[in-house]
Amino acid sequence: MRSVQDHLAAVLASVGPVAPLDVVLRDAVGCILAADVTATHDLPAFAVASRDGYAVAAHETAGAGYASAQSLPVAHDARPGAGPLRLVPGSAVRVASGAALPLGADAVVPLEETDRGTARVAMQRPAVPGQHVRPVASDVRAGAVVLEAGTRLGARQLALAAAMGRGRLRVHPTPRVVLLSVGDELVEPGTHADRAGAGVFEADGHALEAAVRDAGAASVRVGILGDDRAVLREAIEDQLVRADLLVITGGLSELTHDTVKDVLATMGSVRLDHVAMTPGQRHGFGTVADDLASDKAVPIFALPGHPVAAQVSFEVFVRPALRAMAGHAELFRPSVAAEAVEGWVSPPGLRQFVPATVLGSPDEGYRVTPIGDPSAPTVSALAHANALAVVGEQDLTVHPGQVIHCLVLEG
């Protein structure tokens, strides 16, 4: 039997970031930057007004605000987008926020501190050099690295790239994950199924489709395939061309009617193992070459068909692989150490993953409570959990007050 650590190590050794691409900004959202972004120019490239008002030479406003109120003629209007004007000595330029500061000016007097004159402007107080002015390169200096490779690109980072004039960025693109659900017994939710046992609503594909997106990847759910070897093999080969990673659920039992093990055994480097964990001991993983792209080997996961086992296996093995393929430095969910509110029994030699509720804070500590029967976790229990309590292979019993490491699924 293979340990969880060994199986995870084999998975991570077989995957790496998807080859970088240059993409337009809107397609870079959520991606990991593959190359540093270096400023080609200062930002701003010239001094800029940060308020609507009047650009002046501060020393020429020394008498403003006294009984003999000083006023200056208004020589021009300056608007954003135009190059800097030149300030005529002894005058002011009406300037909009974001417009280039006229050459010779060193301050902006806000509108509300003036009489808002159009031909001449009187000011309430003298200006101070530098007031309401954004100096050259006050945001970014030419030659500086403004975004480092490895950065996840969100709204704030894209704003900076756009402000630097970058219309495209080199990123590790979002991995494309193809999902296949296998089993003659499966029926699509929303269609007829005999609740006496003649059909099972297909839950894995829908759950994993959401889990893939939550991990930051793109999902393609192909749907349900029956237990037919030829059909399954053809479907896998057809999907390799568009998949960066392929996930198959179900069909892993060692009985003759389950066909996934037979098909995968003849493809690429895929191997089937009993992994020392519960739920979900039977797993398949390996890579299969895409015949249409000789340099492309697609990782394939075969996960247990039970919905709880499939989702736990995804969290433990598939999610870290997807994060690695997307170029993330942090591959794993956050974890906390929590005291067990109640005890339970854990099977010997297996790492147990128990749907649980974790409550608390870093200051007061955390408490973990299992949901349902830890020995037989249900879909309902997992749906109400915010964490997986992880019990080691050597622990046969969890005692109240015992500290358990918990994988946090949501805040």
What does it look like?
- Catalyzes the insertion of molybdate into adenylated molybdopterin with the concomitant release of AMP.
- It catalyses: adenylyl-molybdopterin + molybdate = Mo-molybdopterin + AMP + H(+).
- Belongs to the MoeA family.
- Helix 1 packs across helix 6 (307-325) and helix 3 (204-214) packs parallel to helix 6.
- The longest helix is centred in the last third of the chain and has 19 residues, at 307-325.
- The model has no long low-confidence stretch (mean pLDDT 92).
- It is built from seven helices and 28 strands.
- It has a six-stranded mixed beta sheet with strand order 16-13-17-21-20-18, sandwiched between helices. Strands 8-5-7-6-9 form a five-stranded mixed beta sheet, with no helix packed on it. The chain has a five-stranded mixed β-barrel with strand order 22-25-24-26-28.
- It has 411 residues and is α/β, with parallel strands linked by helices.
- The two termini are 34 Å apart.
- The protein is 17% helix and 32% strand.
